Amino acid sequence: MAMEKIVSGLMIVIAAVLVFKLFSLPIRLLFRILISTAAGFVLLVVFNYIGMRFGLTLGINIVNALVIGVLGLPGLIVLIFVKQILGS
User: Fold this and answer.
1) What is the domain extent for residue 53?
2) How many domains does the chain have?
3) In angstroms, rounded to a whole number, what is the distance separating the alpha carbons of residues 65 and 79?
4) Does residue 16 lie in a domain region?
């Protein structure tokens, strides 16, 4: 009886470790994307504040923040070019 409880306990611990390992990478990736998006949002706000003086602004939304957060300065440049090409 005691041996069955020990084996059951070990199986539960092993299952918990496997589930944690399975979900830790996606959670870490999601957290990195969230932090990058927040940084992109800050950069977007700063760009709009400075860009107002030159007539260059971008919409402050989650897509622009995500593009800038993931791609960095090249993402900001791409968004500026796209806005200039589309003329909006």
Assistant:
1) 27-86
2) 1
3) 10
4) no
**pLDDT tens per residue across span 67-85:** 999 999 999 999 999 999 9
Residue 7 lies in a domain: no
Integer CA distances (angstroms), 77 to 67, 72, 80, 83, in order: 10, 9, 5, 10
Per-residue pLDDT tens digits for 13-51: 888 888 888 888 888 888 999 999 999 999 999 999 999
Contact 58, 64 (CB under 8 A): yes
* Residue 82 located in a structural domain: yes
Which pTM was predicted?
A: 0.70
Which residue shows structure tokens 């070019």? 81
